[in-house]
Structure formats: structure tokens, C-alpha cells
Amino acid sequence: MAINLEKGQRINLQKSNGSKLQNVCVGINWGAIEKKGFLGLSTSKEAVDLDASCALFNANKQLEEVVYFGHLKSTNGAVKHSGDDLTGDLNGNDGLDNEVITLNLSQLDESTTYAAFVLNSFRGHDFSKIPFASIRIYEGTSKMVNEVFAKYDIAHGAGFAGHVSMVMGVFYKRNGEWKFNAVGEPTKDRDLQHTVKTVAEQYL
After folding, report:
1. So where does this one cross the membrane (predicted)?
2. What dihedral do alpha carbons 147, 150, 154, 157 form, nearest 10°?
3. 37: pLDDT confidence band, cut at 50, 70 and 90?
4. Residue range 39-80, pLDDT digits in tens
5. Looking at domain 3-34+44-203, which of 3.40.50.720, 2.60.60.30, 1.10.10.10, 1.10.540.10 is its CATH number?
6. Cα–Cα–Cα angle for 109, 113, 115, nearest 5°?
7. What is the rounded CA–CA span in Å between residue 67 and residue 81?
8. How buried is residue 74: exposed, middle or buried, by Cβ count under 10 Å (0-12/13-18/19+)?
């Protein structure tokens, strides 16, 4: 049964059968903004371009690599991005992820100690204006979900008004085992580069 994550929650990556997750998908689902026309007689949809990214760091919190819409696969193939979604769901929530990043923990370089997931609003749409946005962590592939491990609702999180960047969560290695910290906090950054810097300074 999937866990409904809470901000700051730390969890072990143990499946319902007792084994550990190795192939992890982090999927983000969000919707376009609906705008009312004159006197509310009509509505239109404004596309929202959210960008999910994964930054890898070593034990000294030094950046190793970033997988994002402009670099869809890590050098060792352990992290893969499904590609850039420029609009979000235009016709209501279809329940499917708009962007998925797959992470094979066993294929990461031995030096990698942190895999941080961040979200940026490319066109600067305020998170609080987006009608729905959620993260889910699951085992499987971007096209086939085997088991949803955890879910996290970011659309209605407190403190997101006025922000366009956030830290979703961080997978981290302790004593050879991977765990997950559901950070779920907005940052003051305006782009991916600065968000990655903030992660290294404040969230590892």
C-alpha cells in the first residue's frame, strides 16, 4: 500500500514483500491553469511547463551530474528522464505522469551518495496557481507501474504561493542502504541551476 508522504518524512525503501526497491520511478503529474474569460462566460487553458530534474552528489556534497530535459540520461545510464512535457494535462487530470525520471540505485556510481529531485516552473508559473500537481514514487517503468511505493501531493502544500522552484525529495545512502527524505519545500530560486546549488547548501 502506498504511503502518503508528509513534508520532511524519512522512509526506508522497503517493498511490501520485504525486499528493497532498486528500480525507482519518480513521476510528476500536473495540470494546465484554467482561466475565466470576460464575466466568466468562457474558459481557456494556459499550458504549464514544469520540469523535473535529478541531481547526483557525492558524499562531500559535490555535484556529479544533473539529469534534466536537456540531458536525458546520466553517463552511467542509472538515471533516465522521459522527456520534456511543455503543457501539463490540458483536459483535466488523466492520472498519468507528465514527466518520469527512472533511477536504478544499483547502477549508480559508488561515489554517488545523494540523488536529489527538484521541480522548476520553466515559464515562471506560481506553484499556487497550478490546479493539481503530485509526485509518486513507484517500482516499474515509465510505461508500466508495478507497485506505487509513496505519493506526495504538492499542489496544496503550505507556503508554495509566490514560488516557482522546489525540492521534492532526496534519496540518500547510509551504511550502504538507500533511503528517501521527502523534503517537499519551495525555494526562492528562479531556475534549475540555482535550485541545484540550494540543494547542496541546505538539503543534503
Report:
1. none
2. 150
3. confident
4. 777 788 899 999 999 999 999 999 999 999 999 999 999 999
5. 2.60.60.30
6. 90
7. 7
8. buried
Quote the pTM value: 0.89
Pairing of β 23-30 and β 99-104: antiparallel
Tell me the pLDDT tens digit for each residue of 104-121: 999 999 999 999 999 999
Sign of CA dihedral 113, 103, 86, 7: negative
For the chain, the domains span 3-34+44-203
3-state SS record for 111-151: CEEEEEEEEEECCCCCHHHCCCEEEEEEEECCCCEEEEEEE
Give the separation between CA 66 and CA 196, rounded to whole angstroms: 9
Nearest to 58 by CA among 182, 191, 196, 172: 172
